[in-house]
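hey so i finally got around to running the thing on that chain from the lab meeting. sorry it took forever, my laptop kept dying and i had to restart like 3 times. anyway pasting the input first so we r on the same page abt which one it is
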Amino acid sequence: MAIYKDFNIAFTPDPYSRDLQVVSDNAAVGQSIRSLVLTMFYERPFQPSIGSIISRLLFEPLTAITESLLVTTIRDVIVKFEPRASLRYVSLYTDVGPNGEPLDDHTLVVEVGFAIFNLPGISSTTFVLRRLR
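ok and heres what got predicted. didnt touch it at all, straight out
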């Protein structure tokens, strides 16, 4: 039995029931983490304090300081706004991805490891940050 359930952010209908698909536990919390990190301040109606400055940091020169700020910002957003997860690590890949694939100059890959309260083990979610205008 799943503890946490959310709608799939892709909003694709279930092929059998035609209802929205549901993700549970690890996938639900991972989807929420990705959504929180990519949300800008004042983007959510009636919740202006939820968000991060990630989109602004992507347009800064990529130095060790910027990388540290990105990791710290991601860590802060998850700790502050995702009560279902206990953060374990945040990894930022700039040149080579987590599977050894080369990344272009405008792509960063973020891997977040977390443990879900009341569930055993550590889960992770990976998402891409791109500088686009």
